[in-house]
Description:
With about 80 residues, this protein is mainly α. The protein has a domain at about 20-35 and about 45-75. It has helices spanning about 5-10, 15-25, 45-55, 65-70, and strands spanning about 30-35, 60.
Amino acid sequence: xxxxxxxxxxxxxxxxxxxxxxxxxxxxxxxxxxxxxxxxxxxxxxxxxxxxxxxxxxxxxxxxxxxxxxxxxxxxx
Length: 77
């Protein structure tokens, strides 16, 4: 969890995250990402995060997608 959008972007574009994301299409058969802001500073439960990801997340490009990924589904379990 980041305190600011700038802090999140700094992480996204720095090592090792940047290099991992460049390799993600080769490594994964399912991948999605999302962004949301919340007023409290407590971590969301896995169920809450999964619900938001399924509702508003975006699928990442992968070279060998699963059937679910190909169907446009965000898999959270």
